[in-house]
């Protein structure tokens, strides 16, 4: 029998990009290609890239250069393909920068990845397929083959693609296109499929999940979607990520709080609290309204764990603006928090600002100051959990009888983790009740009871 064509896939960037990778892997596997985690055993190395910020592009460049070195050592038969946001955002520049890359896939090429790879494996049909550079329109649904690459305990459900916001610093609309929400029935069917495969947590994602359905005519929004997911049988968690404060309304908060499956957790990137900075960022919500919203959130959803992100060093941010943000972080005591230092992105309005620019070193120092304050707050909050028993989802067994899991307050990969002891082979992928014995800023340790 002929040796099957083998593909090693590398996925970079956020969970939204990971879902694209999973759909491509499903298409490739369905077409008869063999997926392998061993590069030395592969004929093709496929890299799905992120291009959101400079650090993401640097990571993509490193992976591509490593792949091209791998190709040169393969004595002629190895191929390299680059997919995702990097060739989508700058197709001509990317193709010129990496002339030895054999194939490029835009975001609209996700559903035909298998056909393009088939052509690559057949010399007569080979094409580099440099993208045209137009805005993408593809949106997967529940009928698309998909090979989940997360631990069996959880799966991401991308409910919409693209973004209609025009934040001054963000390049996502120019890469991913306009918002396009999936039909509610399609999302519901995919949730049913993933639960049937054993997932115990469904993480709803999009560029802005809170605007889900607003681009459609059927009237179904995020609240209605959650109510429909609640009709599915079984013991499982639903987690909502990537909301926008402008569209987190009191009715939506009430719907999430009333759901028996939605965990008390909300990811709501605020970016700043100073009025001048928020206005310059084009966030559509001022500091006073942001404070009111966050107060209402905790009032209407008692016990909710709030995750946010902030952007410091935006052009025009003064020391007073920063001190106001630092004070707000101290007062509100966010359960989970991340901070980014601003860097200009070509093609965005903020990149054209020439006055009031904050030196990178100052922006980095402001980021570090907020993270240091948050670390103290997180340590204090976690130590208060010692002696309590939490419900934890076990993502994997690290060693026999030792597990890595998360509480309801923790999203995969970005939040705290819970290390705990339990019966060998008896907890992985399921829920456990864990008594917390030790705590640090970002880790908890305990024992299943």
The CATH superfamily of the largest domain is: tm_1862 like domain
What is the arithmetic mean of pLDDT? 95
| Main sheet specs | 6 strands, parallel
Q: What integer value in Å does the Rg equal?
A: 23 Å
As for the CATH topology of the largest domain, it is: pyruvate-formate lyase- activating enzyme
Strand order, largest beta sheet: 6-9-10-11-12-13
- Unreliable spans are none
Key terms for this structure?
449 residues, alpha/beta, Rossmann fold, pyruvate-formate lyase- activating enzyme, OB fold (Dihydrolipoamide Acetyltransferase, E2P), 3 domains, 6-stranded parallel β-sheet, 5-stranded parallel β-sheet, 18 strands, 22% strand
What does this molecule look like?
The protein is α/β, with parallel strands linked by helices and 449 residues long. The chain folds into three domains: 120 residues, Methylthiotransferase, N-terminal domain (Rossmann fold, 3-Layer(aba) Sandwich); 230 residues, Alpha-Beta Horseshoe (pyruvate-formate lyase- activating enzyme); 60 residues, OB fold (Dihydrolipoamide Acetyltransferase, E2P). The chain contains 13 helices and 18 strands. It has a six-stranded parallel sheet with strand order 6-9-10-11-12-13. Strands 2-1-3-4-5 form a five-stranded parallel sheet, sandwiched between helices. Strands 14-15-16-18-17 form a five-stranded mixed β-barrel. Helix 8 runs parallel beside helix 9, helix 9 runs parallel beside helix 11 and helix 12 runs parallel beside helix 13. The radius of gyration is 23 Å and the shape is globular.
